[in-house]
Design brief:
single chain; about 200 residues; 2 domains; globular; binds glutathione
């Protein structure tokens, strides 16, 4: 059985858990807060969550984990290989150019540790580019890449939602100019696998 390491509070852990549920794969959750200890780094070389264990082998990075899960149980990528790559492209922009940028404001958003004005203005500048890139690629008809649910919808939920919260610290209303992104998030919030992850995270 696949072991999923991390904490339920993490958006990338939650994303991976939702993918496992969506694909109806058996898994066991193992509580593992981020750490730089040697045994943790063996599982996840940057000491981050999530990671998975499969028959004694370890894998980190949500997109790599998705790639593995998709081989085990296909269904979240279009069958056309170019369209499949476009879904991954969108997921990468959501992760790297929106969520990771907004994350620079996380200390203030979550832990009340002030972030410098310089960081805030960089975040504002970089998020403007990131959200435009996402907007350019998003189809939202009704799903991120068109008529089919793909992995990009999961990244949209787990990246855009948290990013919108963190971006407020930099004075950015991330979704204000894009009602269709907001609609996609509303739709994905009640998608069964995601809803289950949210409910279980609330229970702790
Ligand atoms: N690129 C990684 C990001 C994972 C990530 O940022 N995880 C956060 C929690 S949401 C973490 O472990 N942070 C602790 C740290 O950076 O030390 C992925 O897609 O899995």
């Amino acid at each position: 059985m696949i072991k999923l390491y991390g904490l339920r509070m993490s958006n990338y852990y939650s994303l991976t858990k939702a993918l496992l549920i969506e694909k109806d794969l058996a898994f066991e959750e193992v509580k593992a807060p981020p750490s730089q200890s040697e045994d943790y780094l063996v599982r996840s070389p940057m000491g981050k969550m999530p990671s998975i264990e499969v028959e004694g082998q370890f894998l980190s990075e949500s997109i790599a984990i998705f790639h593995y899960l998709e081989q085990l149980s296909p269904g979240l990528l279009p069958s056309d290989s170019f369209a499949a790559a476009k879904a991954i492209e969108l997921a990468c922009h959501l992760k790297l150019d929106v969520e990771l940028v907004a994350r620079r404001c996380l200390p203030e958003a979550l832990f009340n540790q002030p972030v410098s004005d310089e960081t805030k203005s960089e975040v504002k500048r970089d998020l403007a580019k990131g959200i435009k890139a996402v907007e350019r690629l998003m189809v939202c008809d009704p799903y991120a890449c068109g008529t089919e649910l793909t992995v990009a919808d999961f990244y949209a939920h787990y990246c855009l939602g948290p990013a919108a919260g963190m971006a407020r610290v930099a004075g950015v209303d991330l979704l204000s100019e894009s009602p269709r992104l907001g609609e996609l998030l509303t739709r994905m919030a009640v998608h069964p696998s995601i809803e289950r992850v949210t409910q279980e995270a609330a229970k702790k």
